[in-house]
Design brief:
By secondary structure, the protein is α+β, with helices and mostly antiparallel strands. It contains two helices and four strands, in the order E-E-H-E-H-E. 25% of the residues lie in helices and 32% in strands. The model has no long low-confidence stretch (mean pLDDT 89).
Length: 69
């Protein structure tokens, strides 16, 4: 998942990345939006899928959201 902040001209500015242990993209977006601050003018979107082993390597469980990178 990534959350992008856009400047006043509509250009992407700050980008924050998160891992969400949820296979459904829409639910993953909801999880991130509920658990981390997503402000007006920001967009949360699913960008890639990761394997369960990657999430388990981060000691995550289903439903967890964690900032990445």
């Amino acid at each position: 998942m990534r959350v992008i902040t856009f400047d006043s001209e509509g250009k992407p500015g700050i980008v924050r990345y998160f891992l969400a242990y949820e296979p459904d993209k829409e639910i993953a977006i909801e999880l991130v939006s509920k658990r981390v601050p997503v402000y007006e003018g920001e967009v949360a979107e699913a960008v890639t899928e990761v394997t369960a082993n990657e999430l388990l390597g981060e000691r995550m469980r289903p439903g967890d959201v964690r900032q990445h990178g």
